[in-house]
Design goal:
single chain; 98 residues; mainly beta; SH3 type barrels; 7 strands; PRC_barrel-like_sf; PRC-barrel domain containing protein
Length: 98
């Protein structure tokens, strides 16, 4: 997927309502997880990403700063993110507990 033409989200859009359910892609454009929810708002918030599993079953929730993900909208308006973390790096993070 070519993200160059996708519109980057601004600071006010980095909210749970906008980002929950967004697909997160790694550095090789591979699917690495899905945003479950956020703790806080804006770039300082923590994104809880479900990594691995199948259809959310067996997925490991991990927390990373929203500032580590470049969130954007594609031509259809679908929100997604790109991070420098690959799936193995995310799986190596401690499991997030609510």
């Amino acid at each position: 997927m070519d993200h160059a033409s996708h519109q980057r989200l601004n600071e006010n859009e980095l909210t749970d309502a906008v980002l929950s359910g967004a697909t997160v892609y790694g550095p090789g454009d591979e699917h690495v997880g899905t945003v479950s929810h956020l703790h806080g708002n804006g770039a300082a918030a923590q994104a809880i990403i479900d990594v691995g599993g199948f259809l959310g079953i067996g997925a490991k929730p991990v927390a990373i700063r929203v500032s580590e993900i470049d969130f954007m909208r594609d031509e259809a308006g679908t929100v997604h993110g790109v991070t420098h973390h690959d799936k193995d790096a995310l799986k190596a993070l401690p499991e997030h507990h609510h």
